[in-house]
Amino acid sequence: MSILEIKNVGKRFGGLQALSDVNLSVAENTVHAIIGPNGAGKSTLLNCLVGKLIPDTGSVTFQGQSLLGRKPHEINQMGVSRVFQTPEIFADLTVFENVVIPSLAARDGSFRMNALSAVRGQGDIRATAEAILEDVNMLDKRHMIASSLSRGDKRRLEMAMCLVQNPKLLLLDEPTAGMARADTNNTIDLLKEIKDKRDITMAIIEHDMHVVFSLAERITVLAQGTPLVEETPENIKGHPKVREAYLGE
Ligand code: ADP
Ligand code: MG
C-alpha cells in the first residue's frame, strides 16, 4: 500500500526545468530516501509535497487525496509533517511549551479552551506532550528553556514538535546537515526509535550515505530533475547509473 503517489510531476523555474516526469511512490510504514547530486531537484520536489510550490504538471496524492492546490497548513493537518534543516523552535520557551503549541495548532475547534487547560497542565494535552517527550527521551528536560539545549537536543525537540501533531508521513530534508558524527548517529538512533514506536512513514532527503544506508528501505536517486533508479540499499551500492550521476563517469 502506498501512502504517497507522485505522478508525472514537472516544475520549471524560468528557463530551468527543475523537475520533469517525476514518478515516485512511497509505501506505507517504510523509510524512503531520496538522494542525488546538488541541484538535482530534491528540495523542489519536497516543496511540491508540502504546498510551498505548485507543480506545473502531474499529480501528488496522499492517502488517496490530492495535495495539489492545498495550503501548507491544510497539508499539515492531513498528516504530513516536515522537519526543517535548521530546527525551528521557540527559543525562549520551555521544552514542554514548545511541544504544547503545535499540539494545540493541530487541533481544530476550541483553541482557547485547549490553551487554558494546557496552561493549567490539565487533561490529555499535558499527557500527550509528556508521552511524546518520553518518546524522544527528553521528559527530564521539559522545564529547560529551549535556547539552552544542545544542538542534538534541539533536533529532538523539533522532532517532538512534529510528532505531537501525529503525522502519518514525516518529510525530512537533510536532517543531519552540518552535524558532527556523534549528533548524526544520535539522529539516526532517534529516527529508528520513532519508527519502531509508531505507525509512521518517512521520506528523507539526505546527502550522508551513512544515514541513508542506516535508515532507508527504498532509495530513489534523482538526477537533473528525474528519478534515475529506485532500489533497495543493497542494490544501489555500485549501481552504474548512480556512479554516473555522482561521478560523471
Ligand atoms: P537539491 O535540493 O537537489 O540540491 P533544488 O531542488 O534546491 O536541488 O534545486 C534544483 C534546481 O532548481 C537548481 O538548479 C536550483 O538552482 C533551482 N531552483 C531551486 N529553487 C529555485 C527557485 N525558487 N527559483 C529558481 N530556481 C530554483
Ligand atoms: Mg536541497
Which helices and strands appear, and what pairs or packs with what?
Elements lengths: L1 E12 L2 E12 L3 E5 L6 H8 L7 E6 L2 E2 L5 H7 L1 E4 L11 H12 L4 H9 L3 H13 L15 H13 L5 E5 L7 H17 L3 E5 L3 H7 L2 E6 L2 E6 L1 H4 L3 H8 L2
Parallel strand pairs: 3-8, 3-9, 6-7, 7-8
Antiparallel strand pairs: 1-2, 1-4, 4-5, 9-10
Helix pairs in contact: 3-4, 3-5, 3-6, 6-7
The structure holds adenosine-5'-diphosphate and magnesium ion.
Q: Can you describe this structure?
A:
The chain is α/β, with parallel strands linked by helices and 249 residues long. It has 2 domains: 156 residues, Rossmann fold (3-Layer(aba) Sandwich), CATH 3.40.50; 77 residues, no CATH class. The protein contains 10 helices and 10 strands. The protein has a 6-stranded mixed β-sheet, with helices on both faces. Strands 2-1-4-5 form a 4-stranded antiparallel β-sheet, covered by helices on one side. Helix 3 packs parallel to helix 6. The protein is globular, with a radius of gyration of 19 Å. The two termini are 36 Å apart. It binds adenosine-5'-diphosphate and magnesium ion. Magnesium ion binds next to helix 1. Adenosine-5'-diphosphate binds next to strand 2 and helix 1. It comes from Litoreibacter arenae DSM 19593.
Structural class: alpha/beta
Name the strands of the widest sheet in spatial order. Answer: 6-7-8-3-9-10
CATH C-level category of the largest domain: Alpha Beta
CATH topological fold name of the largest domain: Rossmann fold
What is the radius of gyration computed over CA atoms, rounded to a whole number of angstroms?
19 Å
Q: What is the distance, rounded to the nearest whole angstrom, between the alpha carbons of the first and last residues?
A: 36 Å
Q: Ions, cofactors, ligands: which are bound?
A: adenosine-5'-diphosphate, magnesium ion
Tally of structural domains? 2
Full CATH superfamily name of the largest domain: P-loop containing nucleotide triphosphate hydrolases
What would the principal axes of the Cα set say about the shape? Answer: globular
Strand percent estimate: 25-35%
* CATH architecture designation of the largest domain: 3-Layer(aba) Sandwich
Q: Report the order of strands and helices.
A: EEEHEEHEHHHHEHEHEEHH
Low-confidence parts: none
